[in-house]
Amino acid sequence: MRLMPSLFASTLGQILLINACASLLTFFLFVAMLFFPANPPWPWQPTYRITSVVRVLQHIPEEQRATVAASQDQAGISFRLTAAPVPCTLTSGATVELSKAFAADLPDGPTPSVHGCDASDPDRNIQLLAPIGHYWLEVRMDATGLHPPGFKLPIIAALTFLCAGVIGMSAWALARVIRPLARLADKADAFGRDMDVITISEQGPDEIRRVARAFNIMQERIALTLRNRTRMLAAISHDLRTPLTRMRLQLDTNHSDTMRDKLRKDLDLMQSMVVSALGFLRTGAEQEHKEWLDLGALIATLCDEYEEGGAAISYHGPPQIRCFCRPDAIQRVFSNLIDNALRFGHTVQVMATVGAEHIVVAVCDDGPGIPAARRADVLEPFVMLDPARGGRSGNVGLGLAIVRDIVQSHGGSLALGDRAPHGLQVSVTLPRQ
Questions:
Q1: Where are the alpha helices (DSSP H) in 255-381?
Q2: Which parts of 93-133 are beta strand (E)?
Q3: CA 248 vs CA 28, 244, 260, 261, 264: distances in Å
Q4: pLDDT per residue over 122-180, tens digit each?
Q5: Backbone φ and ψ of 117, nearest 5°
Q6: ∠ CA 8-14-17, rounded to 5°
Q7: Under 8 Å CB-to-CB from 151, ≥6 apart: which residues?
Q8: b/e for 72-104, b at 16 or more Cβ within 10 A?
Q9: What is the pTM of this model?
Q10: Mind telling me which PANTHER family this protein's record contains (predicted)?
C-alpha cells in the first residue's frame, strides 16, 4: 500500500498518471460518440429520405400526394397514402432508434410512430405512420442496416490496445529520462559521503547530459579544492614546525639581545607563509566586480615602482591597453610574477602585445629557468623546485597557482617557456572583451 503514494510522488508516476487519465478520457469520449451521436441522427440515410418525403407531401396539393408517395418506392422501402392504416405494435431496438431520429428531424409536427410488424423478428418489417393532412403516410421497410454498431469486442480490444500502447510508450520514454536522473542522485549521494570522484556517463536528452557534465565538473572541482586545502594545511604545518622549534631553542638557550632579531626574522617567515596560504584560499572567491582597466598603465606603474626600489626592470608595450577585468586581482597576478622574476633573476623585462581578440603579457627573467618536464608541476599548489627556483624557507609553493587561478577565472591562460639565452618567460593571455 505504501508503494502507490511513493510512485505517484515520483516524476515517472505523475506523468504516467496523467497519461492514464488522458487515455481513459479518450476511451469514454469515444464511447459517448457511439451511444450519443450528433445531428444528423443515426440512422441518417433512411431518416433523411423519409423526412424529405414527409416535408414534400406536406407542401404539395392533396390530389398529387398519392402519386408522389408511390413514386418514392425503392428496394427495401415503400411509401403509400392510406386513410385507415392497420398499425403494428411491436417495439425493438431498431424502432426505438428510428423514433428518436424522427423526433429530432421533425420537431415541428406530430412525431411519426415506428413499430415492428413481424412477431418472430421485431427488428424486421418495420412500419412508420406519419400524418399527412387527412391521410396517413405508411412506410414499410426492412431493418437491414438500422442496428447501431454497438460496443462490441473488436472496439473494446482496439481501445484497450490504444490505451495500453500510449501508457507503455510513455513509460519507456520516461524511463530513458528518469534513469539518468536516478543515477545522478545515487552518485551525488555517494559523493556526499565519500568525496570520491565517480564520473557519470553523459546519457539521455540534452538537458540531462548537460546536468551530468556539470556534475562531473563540480565533482572534480570540489575534490581538487579539498586536496589543495589538505596539502596546504600539511605544508604549513610542516614549514611552521621549523621556525617554532628554532624559537623555542633560542628562548631556552640564548638570553642575549641578538635573540630578538632572530625571533623577528622567524616571525616574518611565519607571517609570509600564512599570508600566502590565505591568499590561495581567497582565490576564486573574490567578490570584486569586473570593470574596464588600463592594463598598460598598470604594468608600467608596477615596473616604475620596482625600478625606484633598485630593481633592473623595464616595460615594452603599448602605453594604453583596455582590459575588462578585476583590477585588484590582475594587479596581484603581475606583482607575483614580477616578484618571482626578480627573486631568481637579475634583469626582468615585461612585454605586452595586443591582438584582435587577446592581450598577451610576457614576464621574462635571466635566472636559471625551469626544466620543461617540471613546468606543469610548478603550476600546481604546494609544488616547490629545489635548488633552481625553490627551496626557500617560508615558501609554500602557492605563487604560480594563485596566478593561474586568477587568469583562468578571467577566461585566460598561463604558459611557461624558455628565454634565450637562459631564463624563464611567463606568458599571460587575457581576452580583450
A1: 258-282, 295-308, 327-344, 375-378
A2: 113-116, 126-132
A3: 91, 6, 13, 14, 13
A4: 667 888 888 888 888 888 887 645 445 555 566 677 777 777 777 777 777 777 667 77
A5: -115, -10
A6: 95
A7: 31, 34, 35
A8: beeeebebbbeeeeeebebebebbebbbbbbee
A9: 0.44
A10: SENSOR HISTIDINE KINASE ENVZ, SENSOR PROTEIN CREC
Give the residue ranges of DSSP H helices in 152-205.
153-194
Domain 44-141, CATH among 3.90.1570, 3.90.930, 3.30.450, 3.40.50:
3.30.450
pLDDT digits (tens, 9 = 90+) for 90-117: 887 777 877 887 777 777 777 788 888 8
User: Given CA atoms 276, 281, 283, 289 in this order, what sign does their dihedral have?
Assistant: negative
Stretch (H or E) spanning 223: helix 206-253
* φ, ψ at 360 (rounded to 5°): -120, 125
Cis peptide upstream of residue 43 (ω within 30 degrees of 0) = yes
Are 98 and 43 a contacting pair, CB within 8 Å? Answer: yes
Residue ranges covered by each domain of the chain: 3-37+151-186, 44-141, 212-269, 289-431
Task: Please provide the size of the chain in residues.
Answer: 433
**Which DSSP letter does residue 354 get?**
E
Q: What fold, for 289-431?
A: Heat Shock Protein 90 (3.30.565)
Picking from 143, 168, 135, the residue whose alpha carbon sits closest to that of residue 16 is 168
The dihedral sign for the CA sequence 102, 106, 108, 113: negative
